[in-house]
Design brief:
The chain is mainly α. The protein folds into three domains: 98 residues, no CATH class; 91 residues, DNA polymerase, domain 1 (Orthogonal Bundle); 144 residues, Intergrase catalytic core (hpI Integrase, Chain A), CATH 1.10.443.10. Helices cover 49% and strands 11% of the residues. It is built from 15 helices and eight strands. Strands 1-2-3 form a three-stranded antiparallel beta sheet, with helices on one face. Strands 6-7-8 form a three-stranded antiparallel beta sheet, with no helix packed on it. Helix 1 crosses helix 3 and helix 3 runs antiparallel to helix 4. The N and C termini lie far apart (97 Å). 24% of the residues are buried.
Length: 404
């Protein structure tokens, strides 16, 4: 007789009124249920699609867990059938359960990445996907269990990242942060016990090394402004870079989304991509010639000022991200050539436009005003960011001591 498995919600609530998620195993019209250890309110169950509704706070995690259990259950069932084993549903459950004792790191990671992708957090998605693959490749299998990720394992992983991938200390810490995030999720889902947690003061400590932010000086920016004999691509790149710099280091993702309709009353109005904040800034006089040079391409008021996103599917966040990323790489390639022509030794990139504004601002502008210009939510963030570029007091203190 035919056997089958399916995901289901059992209609037997626990003492808290929550219902258990399970995989149903049917053989000869007799069913057994393999519980996965998680309960939900019945309002979160989508009976038609046999899935946890997206309104549940852990929907992605639970649905990935359910699908992984169903997949492994079907695999075990097929193996039993291929061996011509005619056994009951309870015996099938016993065979399947023995192979499903734990949920792997890879399964939780897949749910986490899917969540990032669904929320259009593509920068985080692609960077964390690389970090997750670093760990799985180090282990050599997708069957890595959370119980195996202990202090010794992580110290060997750190050493591996230094020697085999030549990663900086900051990049290594970023790898550990992803692992910690997934470990906390696994604890929350009951997949691993808190006692197995490998992070803490007496275990693996996550401490971010102080980041070095390098910005251009006034003289270096002037060299870029005054460059002549630039190619068409280099000239366009310089315009985009200066556009960002003149407006307090607008991020490239926001620069490329600015339309002519966003510019009126001698101001630029736009919504930040990072935190959806509305921003309105006066157009500096230096920006007017750049806008005039771009105006020759303008046909409609809704056109982009810069053309990189003209062919992007604006309803597809992933496509917009991909084209922005491609454009950034292109700009950085030409900025390298511009830096050579300007005889600037520093690494010039699109992001350094923001650092350059901070470096030139130094401590000459009140931190509250810088917070508005940077569009930071917290003044603490602004103070930490700007501390990279404020050296006058420490320089004076040093001179006061040694110049005797």
């Amino acid at each position: 007789m035919a056997s089958n498995t399916k995901i289901t919600l059992r209609k037997k609530p626990n003492k808290d009124g929550l219902y258990p998620l399970a995989v149903r195993i049917t053989k000869n019209r007799k069913s057994n249920y393999m519980y996965i250890g998680h309960y939900i309110d019945i309002k979160y169950w989508d009976k038609r699609n046999m899935a946890v509704r997206k309104s549940h706070p852990n929907a992605d995690l639970l649905n990935t867990l359910l699908l992984s259990k169903l997949t492994e259950a079907n695999k075990t069932l097929l193996e039993l059938q291929s061996d011509n084993q005619d056994i009951s549903s309870s015996q099938i459950k016993k065979e399947i359960t023995s192979t499903l004792a734990f949920t792997t790191f890879s399964e939780i990671a897949d749910a986490y990445l899917k969540e990032l992708e669904n929320n259009s957090k593509f920068t985080r998605f692609f960077s964390d996907k690389v970090r997750i693959n670093h760990l799985l490749n180090f282990y050599g299998s997708k069957r890595l269990m959370f119980q195996e990720i202990n202090e010794g394992f992580l110290r060997r992983f750190q050493s591996h990242l230094r020697s085999n991938h030549n990663l900086s200390e900051r990049s290594i810490v970023n790898n550990l942060v992803v692992i910690r995030t997934l470990f906390n999720r696994a604890i929350k889902l009951g997949i691993v016990d808190q006692k197995n947690y490998p992070f803490g003061a007496d275990k693996i400590r996550i401490k971010f090394p102080e980041a070095e932010k390098v910005g251009l000086t006034i003289e270096e920016v002037q060299k870029i402004e005054n460059l002549e004999n630039l190619s068409k691509q280099e000239l366009h790149t310089r315009n985009v870079w200066l556009f960002s710099f003149y407006l307090a280091g607008i991020r490239i993702g926001d620069v490329l989304k600015i339309r002519w309709s966003d510019i009126y009353e001698n101001r630029i109005h736009y919504r930040m991509n990072k935190n959806s904040k509305l921003v309105s800034l006066k157009l500096p006089d230096k920006l007017i010639p750049i806008l005039e040079s771009c105006r020759v391409r303008k046909k409609y008021s809704n056109d982009f000022v810069f053309p990189e996103l003209e062919k992007a599917d604006l309803k597809n966040d992933k496509d917009v991200y991909a084209k922005t990323n491609t454009a950034t790489k292109k700009f950085n390639k030409y900025l390298k050539k511009i830096a050579i022509k300007a005889k600037i030794d520093k690494k010039v990139t699109m992001h350094i436009a923001r650092h350059s504004f901070g470096n030139i601002a130094g401590d000459r502008i009140p931190v509250q005003m810088l917070q508005k210009l940077y569009r930071h939510s917290s003044i603490t963030t602004t103070m930490q960011y700007q501390s990279n570029f404020i050296n006058k007091e420490t320089d004076k203190a040093l001179d006061d001591v040694v110049n005797f």
